[in-house]
């Protein structure tokens, strides 16, 4: 499609099998998902996972891949529009690196724009742009090691 080779895999529905984790780590530098289940991890990843859990880290590395766990889909029409931005701000303030998840199809359900939800997206973008101590980065920055995970 004219784009470069992807470096990041975003897990559909946050579900990844042990075999899939091994295949993903062989092909991608970054994996983004909601959580990592110990029973689905390759055996060789368990020591790094133990360190992650012991140090209470959200993000970690294993199998040559940077593994990002997001705090859930805060930008969603299923959430309360009135508290959505506050929840996002709280999530950002509690982590050094936060993956914000949003699904494009939620903004135009039944082919109609959800103006209130779109406004929350704009408020979120304005907040992020106005904060001097917040840097919006790409998965590519994470893949290239420009950002420390924790």
Describe, in plain words, how this protein is organized in 3D.
With 150 residues, the protein is of the alpha/beta class. The chain starts with 7 loop residues before the first strand and ends in a 7-residue tail after the last helix. The chain has 5 helices and 4 strands.
Write the layout of secondary structure elements.
Blueprint: E1 8-10, H1 18-27, E2 30-33, H2 46-54, E3 60-62, E4 65-69, H3 81-93, H4 115-130, H5 139-143
Parallel strand pairs: 1-2, 2-4
Antiparallel strand pairs: 3-4
Helix pairs in contact: 3-4
What is the string of helix and strand elements?
EHEHEEHHH
Q: Based on helices, strands and strand pairing, what is the structural class?
A: alpha/beta
User: What's the story with the biggest beta sheet?
Assistant: 4 strands, mixed
- The portion of residues forming beta strands comes to 5-15%
Q: Which outline best applies?
A: globular
Unreliable residue runs = none
How many DSSP-defined strands? Answer: 4
- Rounded average pLDDT: 95
Features:
alpha/beta, four-stranded mixed beta sheet, 35% helix
Short note summarizing the structure:
The chain is of the alpha/beta class and 150 residues long. The protein is 35% helix and 10% strand. It has helices at 18-27, 46-54, 81-93, 115-130, 139-143, and strands spanning 8-10, 30-33, 60-62, 65-69.
């Amino acid at each position: 499609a004219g784009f470069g080779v992807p470096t990041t895999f975003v897990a559909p529905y946050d579900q990844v099998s042990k075999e899939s984790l091994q295949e993903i780590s062989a092909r991608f530098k970054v994996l983004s998902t909601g959580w990592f289940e110990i029973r689905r991890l390759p055996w060789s990843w368990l020591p790094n996972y133990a360190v992650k859990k012991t140090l209470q880290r959200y993000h970690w590395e294993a199998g040559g891949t940077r593994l990002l766990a997001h705090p859930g889909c805060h930008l969603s029409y299923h959430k309360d529009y009135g508290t959505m931005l506050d929840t996002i701000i709280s999530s950002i303030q509690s982590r050094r690196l936060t993956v914000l998840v949003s699904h494009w199809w939620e903004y135009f359900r039944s082919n109609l724009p959800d103006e209130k939800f779109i406004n929350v997206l704009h408020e979120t973008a304005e907040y992020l742009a106005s904060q001097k101590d917040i840097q919006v980065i790409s998965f590519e920055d994470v893949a290239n090691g420009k950002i420390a995970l924790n």
